[in-house]
């Protein structure tokens, strides 16, 4: 993608980034959504570059009074166009796999732009991260510390480490799958074991403890869980410094900032920033954040065409060409996404909006008041910029959708729609048989 797509496009004075209705038609920035559907087909993910920039700049500005680094969580949306856009804004990245490291490098991130997280890193992935010179590795177990030390020794270097702490606080999030900081979760080192893990770093000559990390969950709109976790983690840093771990200079508070899908309270970004900045100042450390959903969710829309209308068992069904393989969140998390027509008919109906996948769990909405859409109409599924395309699959041998970036009054396809040939590209007809 050329650099021209990354710089803000010049548009008229009434233009506002994002999705809005004008003269009875849905727009993304200054481009009619229906036009995009006709030009590139459906299903298609559409992203507003302007919304991503707004979200990043708002968070970055709110933290202006404290040394900080905003590392975008690549797992939320790993499209190279989104990564390059954020790289141009000055963001770093938080990665959780070797594949995400590869994407980050392709987008222009390098070395200290990168933080490596994740509960199950392989020795190969750790080696690749050290070769890249990442800012630090967020280590989640004593076993990982030992492996990282061995990998660093083979490279003749000392690996910078932050220990991911499970602060063991209660979190009120929309679904239990997106809670990560409660007692007994697989993520992080149990709170009472962190000092022992720190002492282990002292016995391993090829690792150095430079930070403490936490991540308590996703889609959090209240600051209270952060406040509880920060109090516990700050006390831990103070204890570690008393134990002569005086090289701790980063406090990584993870991500998790919530966005509005339905009627959730909007995140008070300024209050959040004030709270995490206060903790960083008290500890005299550089603050690291790993926002994902907050930066990209509201920037995304999934366009889908209505294929059929059907009535069964007293229920209305709107059958679309997008299904659970394209957007898994409603089926997997019982997530709500607002569904709007790109050109509303003016009548509403209570219906299930379902896809073509051969599963009863293949739905986008149930018992929802939606536009009385007819075959050929195009619907837009809102707030689909995070955990949408990245969780898409080829279930039922369905090609994954296209992705489109809109910037002002222009748009570009940033991921081509998969073709049938792509579905079998890595498979082999002529088998290379082996024996043990």
UniProtKB/TrEMBL annotation:
Keywords, alphabetical: Amino-acid biosynthesis, Decarboxylase, Lyase, Lysine biosynthesis, Pyridoxal phosphate
Cofactors (names): pyridoxal 5'-phosphate
GO molecular function, one term: diaminopimelate decarboxylase activity
Enzyme class: lyase
Coiled coil spans: none
Listed SUPFAM superfamilies: Alanine racemase C-terminal domain-like, PLP-binding barrel
Keyword 4Fe-4S (UniProt): no
The protein's assembly and partners: Homodimer.
NCBIfam families: lysA
Protein name per its UniProtKB record: Diaminopimelate decarboxylase
UniProt source species: Gemmatirosa kalamazoonensis
């Amino acid at each position: 993608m050329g650099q021209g797509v990354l710089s803000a496009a010049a548009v008229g004075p009434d233009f506002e980034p994002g999705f809005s209705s004008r003269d009875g038609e849905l727009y993304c920035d200054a481009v009619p959504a229906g036009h995009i559907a006709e030009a590139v087909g459906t299903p298609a993910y559409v992203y507003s570059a302007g919304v991503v920039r707004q979200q990043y700049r708002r968070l970055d500005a709110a933290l202006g009074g404290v040394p900080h680094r905003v590392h975008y969580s690549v797992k939320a949306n790993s499209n190279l166009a989104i990564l390059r856009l954020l790289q141009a804004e000055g963001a770093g990245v938080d990665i959780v796999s070797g594949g995400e490291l590869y994407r980050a490098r392709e987008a222009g991130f390098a070395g200290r732009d990168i933080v490596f997280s994740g509960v199950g890193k392989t020795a190969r992935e750790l080696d690749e991260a050290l070769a890249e010179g990442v800012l630090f590795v967020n280590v989640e177990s004593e076993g990982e510390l030992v492996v990282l030390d061995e990998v660093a020794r083979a490279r003749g270097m000392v690996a910078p480490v932050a220990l991911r702490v499970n602060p063991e606080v209660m979190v009120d999030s929309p679904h239990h799958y997106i809670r990560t900081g409660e007692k007994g979760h697989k993520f992080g080192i149990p709170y009472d074991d962190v000092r022992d893990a720190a002492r282990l770093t002292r016995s391993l000559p090829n690792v150095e403890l430079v930070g403490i990390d936490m991540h308590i969950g996703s889609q959090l709109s209240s600051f209270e869980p952060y406040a509880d976790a920060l109090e516990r983690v700050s006390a831990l840093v103070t204890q570690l410094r008393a134990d002569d771990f005086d090289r701790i200079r980063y406090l990584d508070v993870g991500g998790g900032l919530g966005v509005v899908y339905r009627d959730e309270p909007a995140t008070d970004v300024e209050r959040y920033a004030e709270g995490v900045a206060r903790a960083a100042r008290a500890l005299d450390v550089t603050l690291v954040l790993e926002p994902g959903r907050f930066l990209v969710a509201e920037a995304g829309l999934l366009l889908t065409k209505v294929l059929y209308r059907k009535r069964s068992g007293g229920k209305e069904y709107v059958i679309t060409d997008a299904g659970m393989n394209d957007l898994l969140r409603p089926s997997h998390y019982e997530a709500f996404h607002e569904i709007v027509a790109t050109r509303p008919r003016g009548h509403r109906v209570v219906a299930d909006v379902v896809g073509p996948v051969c599963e009863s769990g293949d739905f986008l909405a149930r018992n929802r008041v939606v536009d009385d859409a007819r075959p050929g109409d195009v619907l837009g599924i809102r707030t689909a910029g995070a955990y949408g395309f990245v969780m898409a699959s080829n279930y039922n041998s369905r090609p994954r959708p296209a992705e489109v970036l809109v910037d002002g009054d222009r748009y570009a396809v940033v991921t081509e729609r998969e073709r049938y040939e792509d579905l079998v590209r890595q498979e082999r007809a002529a088998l290379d048989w082996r024996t043990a």
